[in-house]
Amino acid sequence: MAPTVATQGSTASHPFSGPVGGEAPLFTKVRPRRGFEYISEQIREAVASGKLSPGSRLPAERDMAEIFGVSRQGVREALRGLEMSGLIESRPGVSGGAFIRSGDPGVVTRAVNDLASLGALSSESLLEARILLTSDIIRLVCERATEEDFEKLEAYIDAFEEQDAQSAAGADRTLRVTHFYSILAEATHNEVLAMLMNSLTEIVQLRLNKAGPEPLTNVTQMRRKLLKHLRAGDADNAVQAMTEHLKRVEHRLIEKEAPLAASKG
Q1: For 98, which DSSP code?
Q2: How far apart are the first and last CA of the chain?
Q3: Where are the alpha helices (DSSP H) in the chain?
Q4: Is residue 185 scored above 70 in pLDDT?
Q5: Higher pLDDT residue, 34 or 70?
Q6: 69, 17 Cβ separation under 8 angstroms
Q7: Which of 20, 77, 138, 260 could form a disulfide bond with 36, CB atoms 3.0-4.6 angstroms apart?
């Protein structure tokens, strides 16, 4: 359970600043210069060491200012940065405050998307990463996927084929066509791979929506072929089919993105 925070009294008696059971205090005073950085560092270290866990409530703002020996503004800056990074969350109300939050895979996705939006990730690097990651995912799917996983993939292919025949290119279609990769990654039963796949897939979604290339017409055919290889445990042919598909998609994207980049230059 999270430590109870005292709101009055000296820092010496505070559960976050006083020694407990002969151990060193959880937090210590920081140097005034750029104090918010040291606050963030100490909170991150406390989480990494397990002294603070998801759901733990941090002291009130005024208590933290006293504990760390900085201004309340310094505390606010530290908390704002930690919240933006996804480590803590602020809850309103009488029982609210700053809490250590549970892991949020979306933080990774947002960070990668920001880098891509700023042009820090080249299309060549993204394609290479997608091929490597998807290839490893396919090999694990061949080893670990259950019949239920295969049925889920097949059902999604069937639904996409039916909807695709009645819909035009656009953001809705992009979301449907790329969600297949999430389902594929989930079949590995590895949440880290699923998280990484979602991060890269969202970048592709943004690029597709922005560039608007003409959709490939053989997506369903390729996926049925892929599923056949997966069911047979034929990882090599499955990887080859997927790699060729990813390269075709990337080629379409680059063809559309090049004129857009030139017009801005």
Answers
A1: E
A2: 56
A3: 35-48, 61-68, 72-84, 106-117, 123-144, 147-164, 171-186, 191-211, 219-232, 235-264
A4: yes
A5: 70
A6: no
A7: 77
